[in-house]
Design brief:
The chain has 155 residues and is an alpha/beta fold. The chain has one domain: Rossmann fold, CATH 3.40.50.960. 45% of the residues lie in helices and 19% in strands. The chain is globular. It binds 5-nitro-6-ribityl-amino-2,4(1H,3H)-pyrimidinedione. The site of 5-nitro-6-ribityl-amino-2,4(1H,3H)-pyrimidinedione has 15 residues, from strand 3.
């Protein structure tokens, strides 16, 4: 039996991070968590490019354009924070962002980490963008590193 499992190594990987500015204080914590995770796993800061979008709704469009440019990223981490209390169109923004990110990843084969927080309150969102533990930016970055390595092993 052959078992394929991605190693959590960032050595030699080039990573793009797409981060939405909406709820910026929380997005910045997600970005800090993502960069911390990537660098601790061997990705040098010089191999990380960060692209800002106005909100999470624009993330899939940015992904599409980054992938089209063929800048040869090994993986992309998508970060954003959508809070239900703040908008009646929470459902639309959240579902379009999730669908768009999934579609981009499936259609292109690019490993894309889903680091979008969907929360009912600011407090809940803060809990998922913790500085010391429980940071969705960190978790989604780790998933990207694992997927890059697992996909590289498919023959
Ligand atoms: N974008 C977010 O990333 N999070 C939100 O909570 C949010 N709210 O509350 O509206 C949000 N809206 C902006 C949206 O992503 C677009 O930028 C905007 O509709 C312009 O296209």
């Amino acid at each position: 039996m052959k078992e394929i499992k991605g190693q959590l190594t960032g050595k030699g990987r080039k990573i793009a991070i797409v981060v939405a500015r909406f709820n910026e204080a929380i997005s910045k914590n997600l970005l800090t968590g993502a960069v911390d995770c990537l660098t601790r796993h061997g990705v040098p800061e010089s191999a990380i490019d960060v692209y800002w979008t106005p909100g999470s709704f624009e993330i899939p469009t940015m992904l599409s354009n980054i992938i089209k440019k063929k800048k040869k990223y090994d993986g992309i981490v998508a970060l954003g924070c959508i809070i239900r209390g703040e908008t009646p169109h929470f459902e639309y923004v959240a579902s379009e962002a999730a669908k768009g990110i999934a579609n981009m990843s499936i259609q292109t084969g690019m490993p894309i980490g889903f680091g979008i927080i969907t929360a009912d309150t600011v407090e809940q969102a803060k809990d998922r963008a913790g500085v010391k533990s429980g940071n969705k930016g960190w978790d989604s970055s780790l998933a990207v590193l694992e997927m890059i390595d697992a996909i590289a092993q498919i023959q």
